[in-house]
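[job 0412] stage=fold_complex status=start
inputs:
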Amino acid sequence: VLSQPVRIVVDWGSSNFRAFLFSGDGEIIARHAASAGILSVKDGAFEAVLRREIGGWLKGSGTEIWLSGMITSRNGWVETPYAACPATLDDLASAALTRRLTDGCRLNFLPGVMMDGATTDVMRGEEIQIFGSVAADESATLVLPGTHSKWASVEKGRIAAFRTFLTGEVYALLTAHSIVGRLMPKERGPFDAAAFAGGVEQALAGGAGLLSDVFTVRSDALLGRLQPEAMADRLSGLVIGHEIAGALATAVKPGYMIIVGEAELAARYQQALAIAGIRSRLAEPERAVEGFRRLMAGA
Amino acid sequence: VLSQPVRIVVDWGSSNFRAFLFSGDGEIIARHAASAGILSVKDGAFEAVLRREIGGWLKGSGTEIWLSGMITSRNGWVETPYAACPATLDDLASAALTRRLTDGCRLNFLPGVMMDGATTDVMRGEEIQIFGSVAADESATLVLPGTHSKWASVEKGRIAAFRTFLTGEVYALLTAHSIVGRLMPKERGPFDAAAFAGGVEQALAGGAGLLSDVFTVRSDALLGRLQPEAMADRLSGLVIGHEIAGALATAVKPGYMIIVGEAELAARYQQALAIAGIRSRLAEPERAVEGFRRLMAGA
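[job 0412] stage=fold_complex status=done
writing structure:
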């Protein structure tokens, strides 16, 4: 009796492990999630963790497992090279590095995507969300806000170019560790849209740059021009505004953008983009899952 | 018998305590330094620390003590307001807040200096270095590199305007805590002038801004375009280059500048300013001490 092929996708990042079991016609029939990111895996025991988390899904040969995220990085299980832009979802699938486990299960480690021209850039994982956010032949400009925010230009279903901004990480560092954060109250109040907008406008006005603008959050507070409770949102507006200004300085201003990310942060980006004169829509949730669904449909 | 008046300056910062005893004709006749910054002072016991460190110099009434630095901040002994630009050394002296100790010693807490116009800025301590770096009636543009780098425009002996850049602090945070620093070797090698210059040039070329530029330090290393050993100096060049670009975006480019600071960092700034087409000279050491000497000569 021929058994059905088993198809699994594992989105294995630094902090989280998420797996999806697909039916023969490409629909998700089971999901599993755990706090079993690669940083928690001791001594490279990736196979043991895989079996602990989704061992019940594995059926030996005929089992195809696709892996994406930091599991394919230098600190992961198998390091994959980066696919060069422009890149399609098919390009990623065909560049996957395969390994066979002793019981016959086959692992397919997906590549990341790189820019390697006048400037360089890399991503590992976000490309799946990008492919899950646009129709197969669509052209669009997307932003994926976050610790390492990505701007991506998709042309007819290919990732043509992208750029990373350290926005979320710089915001977090300045808030937690810098002299600017020191005056901020420990308790975070409700979002202050006006303070946020003020930061965006200051950044877009093109003063003396981010290194100077962030200090004005402190001096404005010291001189009584800004309430301490409003400092964090002003700073948030400043860094997001500088991200937008930087992106627009090196590309044609898009008339319209898609924002892919968690709702609260996406809403901030929508407000900031509007101040910059760019209309946008928020992508549906679970764009990574949709990207994996498309990957499986093509695989 | 009338005793000679005793004149003392205390430069009391977050980490360090430095005191200078002046003769009647305004020369320094004794110095004392200790790691007794205000962050180490428990329960506001500033007077006890002052007596522990320089109690032997104090002679009751007739003793004038001038205090500068973070000791005059909200977390210090007496918080002084900021003097507005343009400000002279005499303006600072005459705006000092005085307190008398029970034995008659008089304390004079110097103000900081502020900009409170279209944008705000503050400093507390650096102004003494600035006054110690220029002749009484000189006009000059100065930079004081450091954790919170200051650019100051002095017109005929007055601090006309200044601007703070969080350059050193952002560099330290990115190196110690960010994804960019994670690829850097723990051991710091010799200064890589070419990597540093590359960072300055990238910043001055005006790409997608600091938040994007710093990520290229990581991607260049991942793609083999930059040696891990060179990452820190490239990043240093990037943040200093962005400071210079930001300063020049909001002011007329000076033909010539004075760099006031510690020799190794000052040399980096001189290299970076040269790339930006600005000639510069390094100030003599101990400009704060010279500033205090001038303060005492006028007091």
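[job 0412] summary: Residues 231-249 of chain B form the longest helix (19 residues).
[job 0412] exit 0
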